[in-house]
Known about the structure:
alpha+beta; nine-stranded antiparallel beta sheet
Amino acid sequence: MRTFVHGAAVWDVACPQRPSRVAGVTMAGFRIRDLDALRMVPHPAVTLLVEFGSGSPVMDYAAGRQQRGSVVAGPGVGSGGALWARGENVECVQVRLSPVIARAVLGVSPADLDGAVVALDDLWGREASQIRERLGEVSSWQDRFALTDALLARRYEAGSPVDPEVAWAWDRIIGGRGLVRVDGLAAEVGWSRKRLWSRFRSQLGLPPKRAVKLVRFDHAAHRLVAGQGAARVAAEAGYADQSHLHRDVMAFTGVTPATVAGEPFLAVDDIAWPSHETPANRR
C-alpha cells in the first residue's frame, strides 16, 4: 500500500499484484480518513465503488440529490462538475469496467443507468451486501481483490456479451484515443450508421460521438495532470486549438484546464492505475 498526497488529500492506495482474469477489469483499493468534496471527473469506464469499512462514501449531485454507500456509475457521469464525493473513514475497492464488458458484469446495460449514480444494492441485491461483508472480514488487500475479481468473473461468464461489431467500434475509439471518424465506423463493420449508433448506445450507454469526445477528453486531462501545457495538449490530442480544448474541458468538468491539472481524482491514477492506458484497460 502506498500513500497518495496531493495538497490536503492524503489517501492510502493499494493495487492488485495480478491482473484481473477478465479483460477490461481494473481495480484499486482506497482507505481515506477524510474525503472532503472530491470532484468526480468523467471517465470512459463504468465505475463500481464497493465500500466495506466503518465509514461510507456520499455522492452529492449539484442539484441536491445524494447517493450513499456502494454505487455504480456509467461512463461520463459527472459531466459539467455535477458530482462530488465525500465521506469519513472510507474503505473501498474501486473497479473500472470497460463498457464492453459492463453489461455482462452488471446484469444491465450501462444505458439503463440513465447517466446517474445507482446503488449497487439496486442492481445486485443480496449479492452486493454479501461482497461487502466478505471484504470486511479479510485484512489483506490482495484477498479483497481476489474476492472481488472472483465475483466479477462469475458474473461476466454468466452475462450476455455485446455485439462483436460494437466491441470492435469501441476498441477503435479507445485505440485511437478518440481520434477516429465516427462516420466511418459503421462502414468498417458493414452496418448502417443507424444500426451501429442504436446498438452502440443501447449496449454501451453512450452514442459513438459522445464516446469519442469522452475518450479524447480523458487522454487530454491526464496529460494536463502530467504537467504538459494546454497548448501542447490541444495540438497533440486532436483539438482544433487551445480554445477548443478549454471548451471541452469546461463542458466535462465545469472548470478550466488549469484547475483540472490539479484534480486529485486524476492525479491518483499514477498510483492506483499506473497502466491506465494499457490494452487490457482499453477493452
